């Protein structure tokens, strides 16, 4: 690792260590744990987050569960617990099911084997990012100004990132002039995490409120929008952080490209269309309070969906490690 590199999480065989993303960018606090339950809590609280990252963290959590006790019942209970942490990102379920498929009852070496499986899942996502970055950068013309939403970088994947990986790669090729960072209400993954990564990478950026995107695009300040995804149905409908759908509509209105960058582990081939994707609804306190301060009274009702689904026809291309796919999509 080079100085300044961000190391979001890792497992040394004894201790799982993660950077608490809820405290970024004001504080860089690492948490260490030897228990899978603490990792499940970290996923629920978004201390670790981002679709591929929560899959990798859940895989390490399951390896840890076996270190405590190589017992099939306990292992499967841990898997069920981890599956209940967050419903939308399919990478979580993909990684847990892969871990389960490598468990051999009575084998005696399950901890060792599943630790290697978790490392393989981790490396797989890192390698996917590198290929997504290459494929995606080839689509970007020079000079480009880009809008992105939420956080899709090293913090969300462990590799260079998906959408943010494309932006970083295009920047190194001299094609990116400026990145407009949607703050990404209510938890500010854009203004806290993406801005943090862009500053570390030396890429020019500014933060804007999510609702400024229409003005930015209508003023001709953005040439394209690129985001990640949490689950992509067979027809290409893509769930991502709430507000992504709005961006795709704006891109259509102003005739600029809207790209999704995601590994194929984000594709859920069991779902035909986006309406089948379960959208996580999060606690009202995320809107009601901010860093301990009350924004509005507790009795105001709240609706807080964490994701939305962008219809496939609004997506100019889906960039994966296997290449670039264009509408109409068929991932079945
Ligand atoms: O709720 P979060 O912060 O986990 O949401 C993350 C996103 O929506 C990302 O855009 C998505 O996971 C893609 S990450 C490469």
Key structural traits:
single chain, 332 residues, alpha/beta, Four Helix Bundle (Hemerythrin (Met), subunit A), Rossmann fold, 2 domains, 7-stranded mixed sheet, 4-stranded mixed sheet, 11 helices, 16 strands, binds 5-S-methyl-1-O-phosphono-5-thio-D-ribulose
Structural commentary:
The protein is an alpha/beta fold. The chain folds into two domains: 9-129, Four Helix Bundle (Hemerythrin (Met), subunit A), CATH 1.20.120; 139-325, Rossmann fold (3-Layer(aba) Sandwich), CATH 3.40.50. Helices cover 38% and strands 18% of the residues. It contains eleven helices and 16 strands. It has a seven-stranded mixed β-sheet with strand order 6-5-4-7-10-15-16. Strands 11-8-9-14 form a four-stranded mixed β-sheet, with helices on one face. Strand 5, helix 8 and strand 6 form a beta-alpha-beta unit. Helix 2 (51-68) runs parallel beside helix 4 and helix 2 packs antiparallel against helix 5. The radius of gyration is 19 Å and the shape is globular. The relative contact order is 0.12. The mean pLDDT is 97. 5-S-methyl-1-O-phosphono-5-thio-D-ribulose (MRU) is lined by residues 46, 49-52, 89, 150, 152, 156-157, 162, 189, 227-230, 240-241, 306. 5-S-methyl-1-O-phosphono-5-thio-D-ribulose (MRU) binds at residues 46, 49-52, 89, 150, 152, 156-157, 162, 189, 227-230, 240-241, 306.
Order of helices and strands: EEEHHHHHEHHEHEHEEEHEEHEEEEE
Q: Radius of gyration from the CA trace?
A: 19 Å
User: What structural class do the secondary elements suggest?
Assistant: alpha/beta
pLDDT averaged residue by residue: 97
Strand content: 15-25%
How many β-strand stretches?
A: 16
Bound molecules: 5-S-methyl-1-O-phosphono-5-thio-D-ribulose
Question: CATH top level of the largest domain?
Answer: Alpha Beta
Strand order of the largest sheet: 6-5-4-7-10-15-16
């Amino acid at each position: 690792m080079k100085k300044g590199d961000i190391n979001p999480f890792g497992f040394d065989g004894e201790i799982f260590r993660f950077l608490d993303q809820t405290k970024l960018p004001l504080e860089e606090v690492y948490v260490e744990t030897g228990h899978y339950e603490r990792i499940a809590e970290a996923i629920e609280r978004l201390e670790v987050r981002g679709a591929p990252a929560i899959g990798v963290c859940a895989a390490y959590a399951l390896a840890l569960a076996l270190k405590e006790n190589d017992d099939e019942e306990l292992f499967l209970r841990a898997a069920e617990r981890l599956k209940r942490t967050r419903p939308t990102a399919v990478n979580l379920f993909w990684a847990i099911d892969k871990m389960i498929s490598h468990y051999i009852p009575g084998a005696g070496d399950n901890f060792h084997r599943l630790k290697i499986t978790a490392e393989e899942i981790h490396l797989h996502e890192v390698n996917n990012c590198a290929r997504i970055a290459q494929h995606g950068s080839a689509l970007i013309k020079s000079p480009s100004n880009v809008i992105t939403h939420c956080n899709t970088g090293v913090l969300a994947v462990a590799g260079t990132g998906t959408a943010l990986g494309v932006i970083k790669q295009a920047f190194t090729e001299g094609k990116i002039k400026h990145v407009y960072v949607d703050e990404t209400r209510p938890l500010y993954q854009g203004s806290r995490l993406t801005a943090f990564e862009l500053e570390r990478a030396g890429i020019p950026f500014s933060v804007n409120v999510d609702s400024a995107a229409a003005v930015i695009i209508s003023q001709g300040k953005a040439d394209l929008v690129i985001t990640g995804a949490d689950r992509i149905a067979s027809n290409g409908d893509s769930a991502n952080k709430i507000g992504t759908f709005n961006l795709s509509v704006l891109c259509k209105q102003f005739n600029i490209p809207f790209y999704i960058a995601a590994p194929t582990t984000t594709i859920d081939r069991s779902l035909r269309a986006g309406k089948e994707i379960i959208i996580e609804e999060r606690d009202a306190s995320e809107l009601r309070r901010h860093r301990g301060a009350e924004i509005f009274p507790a009795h105001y009702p709240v609706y807080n969906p964490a994701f939305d689904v962008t219809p496939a026809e609004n997506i100019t291309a889906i960039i994966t490690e296997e290449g670039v796919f264009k509408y109409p999509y068929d991932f079945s």
